[in-house]
């Protein structure tokens, strides 16, 4: 069975994607910082028959990243790496004039540096896979200028560029930066707590990720909304 590492997998998009892959027979290594919630997610997927290894920790910790890849190795290696864990930089979001520099450093460390560190750790296994794939979860804030989203958007823009370069440097892999669009997640609620407008559940965009895995287009940046419309 193919093996996926998914960071930020205890809830939201990470959990929804894990559930979809489990339904397809994937073995999973799941990461999140909150061990109790992560264990609950793993138990739910195991009840459906999936093989799941839950490894709680912080992706900015090199030892934790090594543990994730080692756990995948015990299941057969890394076929898919999904960098979904994210930090906002400030909760709620603030204008750049008020953005704590330490918050920006945290966003860059989680969203970019840790993502690259995990790729570096997993690269030998990804290269050995017949379908080695890296997915970095992006945001429309990486490409559009939205007030108060400057720090988070800058980190996602950096992640997008890193993914693009990785795709050039590793032609044997598929490297996709995916903008999932608006979703009702804890991250968004923390970013804009006063926004009461209804937003779609993360499960609604998972078919876009599955389409990429099925069709394996060229490395690049993709928007979930476009994939969903084209796939109808």
TrEMBL record:
InterPro entries, sorted: NAD(P)-bd_dom_sf, Sc_DH/Rdtase_CS, SDR_fam
Keyword Chaperone annotated: no
Domain of life: Bacteria
SUPFAM superfamilies: NAD(P)-binding Rossmann-fold domains
Coiled coil: none
Keywords noted in UniProt: Oxidoreductase
Keyword Thylakoid: no
Family: Belongs to the short-chain dehydrogenases/reductases (SDR) family.
The name this protein goes by in its record: SDR family NAD(P)-dependent oxidoreductase
Organism: Streptomyces gilvifuscus
């Amino acid at each position: 069975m193919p093996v996926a590492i998914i960071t930020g997998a205890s809830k939201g998009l990470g959990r929804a994607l894990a559930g979809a892959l489990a339904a397809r027979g994937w073995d999973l290594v799941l990461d999140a910082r909150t061990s109790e919630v992560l264990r609950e997610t793993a138990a739910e997927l195991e009840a459906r028959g999936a093989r799941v290894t839950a490894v709680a920790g912080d992706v900015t910790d090199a030892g934790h990243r090594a543990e994730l890849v080692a756990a995948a190795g015990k299941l057969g290696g890394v076929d898919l790496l999904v960098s979904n864990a994210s930090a906002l930089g400030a909760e709620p979001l603030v204008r750049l004039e008020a953005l704590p520099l330490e918050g920006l450093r945290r966003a860059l460390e989680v969203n970019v540096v840790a993502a690259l560190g995990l790729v570096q750790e997993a690269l030998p296994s990804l290269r050995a896979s017949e379908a080695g794939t890296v997915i970095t979860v992006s945001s429309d804030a990486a490409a559009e200028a939205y007030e108060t989203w400057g720090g988070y958007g800058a980190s996602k823009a950096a992640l997008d560029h890193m993914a693009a370069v990785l795709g050039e440097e590793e032609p044997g892999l598929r490297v996709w930066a995916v903008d999932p669009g608006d979703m009702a997640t804890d991250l968004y609620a923390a970013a804009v707590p006063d926004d009461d407008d209804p937003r779609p559940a993360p499960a609604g965009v998972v078919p876009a990720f599955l389409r990429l895995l099925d069709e394996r287009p060229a490395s690049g940046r993709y928007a979930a909304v476009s994939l969903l419309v084209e796939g109808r």
